[in-house]
Amino acid sequence: ILSAIVSLPLIELEARIMSSRKPGDSDVLSSLYSMIPLLFLLLACVELSDAAAAVDVYRLVQYDISGVPFGSRIAALNHHAASLHSSAGADLSRSVLIIPLRELNISLVKGNFQLRLIALHLELDYVELDSATLVMTEYISQKKTLGGLLLLLPQMFNFESGDMAVTKDDIHEMERLKNLLVELEELLIHANIPYPVYFAFEHDDIEAVLADIQRNDVNGQAATPTNGGYKFVVSAPEPKKLASPIMTNIQGWLPGLKPDGDTNQLPTIAIVASYDTFGAAPALSVGSDSNGSGVVALLEIARLFSLLYSNPKTRGKYNLLFGLTSGGPYNYNGTHKWLRSFDQRLRETIDYAICLNSIGSWDDKLWLHVSKPPQNAYVKQIYERFSGVAGELGLEVELKHKKINISNPRIAWEHEQFSRLRVTAATLSGLSSAPELFQRTGSLSDSGYLVSEDAIRRSIKLIAQSIARHIYDQQEDMPVFADDSSLAVDLSYVRLWLDLLSRTPRVAPFLTKNDPLVAALKKELAEHTHEVTVQHELLDGMFTFYDSTKAKLNIYQVASVTFDLLLLLAVGSYLIVLFSFLVITTRVHGLIYNFNHDNCVSSFCLLFFNHPIDQL
């Protein structure tokens, strides 16, 4: 608009010049004048200010369970920024609040909310806690209106940050922040939040912006349309439901040695791991431990037994079934449909199934979770195999029994899907208790930095040796997979696959049938097993997910209204002076032209006719 206003006097000047110029005058000057207004009009269409920073941000998951909404329900963002240093009682309903993870104390949020209720009920004075806790209590637990929320995560949780040197002090700090982030995710995932919530990682650009915002907030100059400041903009369409999300299961076989003339089917041992994840931000849910470690262990066990079964002399009289299942976070829905696709006779041949879950971050103790009573002969036999091998390796395996409640749709462990079909199964895990829904399923805190390659190596050795002892009915200490043998665990192989999985988000509803990760898993399993097949199934209809998981946050530094008024005053003064100058100069130009024209005619008459023009 200002450019158009500035152009008006120039257009007026051009019109006056065109009306007063001589017929033979050059068109160059007039063309130049014609270009000036056009130049100003073009400037009106040009963005004169770039963003102060452009940051990759990751949206909080949006989903429904049986029609009940959870997560962040909005994606678009266009508000001024504020920090935790904003004055008490400030209206943040149209502000984007930036909170670094390091400044949070989530354990106090729930307690703070409960204390408020108790104090209100007993009419007691309530002692206020730190600003971060109060903010999270008001805007998450109490659902107070907020323009948007941006949570800054340390770079240690960024799978794209590359290798980082980690010291012992860093490990301690990472553990603290991991526990903090686990609590934060639990709070956010199970809340219905009516404003945009995004995650970003700490880096120089956004930290400089945050420091500036905090300084302004401390000085009482919070960003508003009146004061100016920083404005956060995320241009994103309204999230749409994902139509018919697919789960993909992958299986492969290592057939056992069947004696000639034997018409009976060989017994089967199934090794199973769920490979997909779920977390507060689907674009960041890599799940290095849950359950990347289980997938890595399954692939390495398949490689080891493929070497063992390649020689007829060492091929066991058991079929080995390897299953990479999907839908783990959703009550192991993929495992359920995978097992239902089996023929009844095939299910009856399964001697037992061992499911692998979160085996990459334990110290000296693993847990064998079962659904059948410990007194069951099959369960007792499995536990004795594992505990015996564990003792030889200097480890400890403890049996944990959890009875299945048939009326409860919640499936906490993958082996429970087998147990519901009367198939003996157990889950080997570093977790001592059953996780709740969407807990320990590949969260933001589950990064590769907190996973131990040595823990995975020891787990693989324990599982492979226990299965071998069952297949070959070994009683004494006869290590098949000794460290110095050709059947030793390949750490480079483990490291390669763990690195890949630690950099690959794999939330099932966002994976396609032809996803590169699915293709890579299928190809790798086909390298070591036979009859590799892929099964595509629809996710249970009770879960609904929405798109828009990643965006670009543009940060603009905007001027205050005072600046706009001063600019308007300056432009107005300029226009008045320019208009006055142009009016005066064009009138003087006209007078000079008319004066020169009359003098030229009079001189011509006197020269040739010796009479003034008025006498002719």
From TrEMBL:
<dbReference type="InterPro" id="IPR016574">
    <property type="entry name" value="Nicalin"/>
</dbReference>
<keyword id="KW-1133">Transmembrane helix</keyword>
<dbReference type="GO" id="GO:0009966">
    <property type="term" value="P:regulation of signal transduction"/>
</dbReference>
<feature type="transmembrane region" description="Helical">
    <location>
        <begin position="565"/>
        <end position="584"/>
    </location>
</feature>
<keyword id="KW-0325">Glycoprotein</keyword>
<protein>
    <recommendedName>
        <fullName>Nicalin</fullName>
    </recommendedName>
</protein>
<keyword id="KW-0732">Signal</keyword>
<comment type="similarity">
    <text>Belongs to the nicastrin family.</text>
</comment>
<keyword id="KW-0256">Endoplasmic reticulum</keyword>
<keyword id="KW-0472">Membrane</keyword>
<dbReference type="Pfam" id="PF05450">
    <property type="entry name" value="Nicastrin"/>
</dbReference>
<keyword id="KW-0812">Transmembrane</keyword>
<dbReference type="GO" id="GO:0005789">
    <property type="term" value="C:endoplasmic reticulum membrane"/>
</dbReference>
<dbReference type="InterPro" id="IPR018247">
    <property type="entry name" value="EF_Hand_1_Ca_BS"/>
</dbReference>
